Amino acid sequence: MRDGRTRTEFAARAGAPTGVSFHHFADLDREQAEETLGRFFTPVRVSVPDDRPFRMTSSVLCLGPLTVGDLTFGPATTIDAESVGGYHVSIPLAGEMRSRHSDAYVIARPAHTAAVYRAGASAATWRMAETRELDVKIERTALEDELESMLDRPVQGTIDLAPAMNVAAGPGRTWGELMRLLRDESRDGSGLIYEPLIANRLWRSVLTGLLLAAPHRYSVELSQSARPGPPRAIRHVIDAIQAEPHRPFTVQELAEIGGMSVRSLQEGFRRHVGTTPMSYLQHIRLTRTHQALRQGDLESTTVAAVAHRWGFTHLGRFAQAYRARYGTHPSTTLRAG
Known about the structure:
- By secondary structure, the protein is α+β, with helices and mostly antiparallel strands.
- It has twelve helices and 13 strands.
- It has helices at residues 30-40, 140-151, 170-186, 196-213, 219-223, 231-243, 251-258, 262-272, 277-295, 303-309, 315-326, 330-336, and strands spanning 7-11, 21-28, 45-47, 56-63, 66-73, 77-81, 87-94, 97-101, 104-108, 113-117, 123-127, 131-138, 164-166.
- Strand 8 and strand 9 (104-108) form a beta hairpin.
- The radius of gyration is 24 Å and the shape is elongated.
């Protein structure tokens, strides 16, 4: 930044999904704050009472369609947005924030209430001095696509998220803790959040979690049991797993293979297979590794190579799952031949 202000940025290591990066800016003035908030969240107008000196510090994680910002404001601050970009949640960490959005007035406080904003509407917010907050933005199409996947049907228009969310208990508290975890992990460029296999699963969990934690007109439908996927579709998913158990499947990918929602996939596996899709995938992987270890020899085969070949990326967890399944260590199976 100009005028000696500090700035730190780094992107995810090679192979991570596009759009995974971390940005830190210290001691921004009002103009720079507007520029930064507009870049990562939505165009805004920032003002302070009596033209007092302004400062803002921000750390921002960009993770696919998700943006998580840890923002600290020095003086009391007013921020106005003509049109909120995407769906937005503000979780106070210190101080109090008041907002007017979608004809609702919300007082947001730490460990109590978060303010929630719908895509496309205007918003006006007021913060007391020394306020710190987590601001989360989700691209509109991403959240609406996630809702359609969960419902297994199209939805029309924007999602009518309630203007306030309880973050003191229940799903809202859990979702808020997940946001704090992402914030903490984002500051370490070597953390798991920058691993390609983890990043996509994390941001999708955030989207699913918000749809389950924040009230809206689809909440009751989401809370009801899903229609199980039909046996033929479940058989198609099983065939895909058995053909390529080494692939880094996600639940979403398996649901797409079967042509159903994630909830229908999970309910279908529960009803027709008696387990979850990911548990079944691990079962097949363990079976393949067990067969390979029994057929291998000590001179040309290693446990690590066999585990990686069949999709296990963490050797400690693999060994633990193997012992639970077969009652022995994988190296013992290899030595026994």
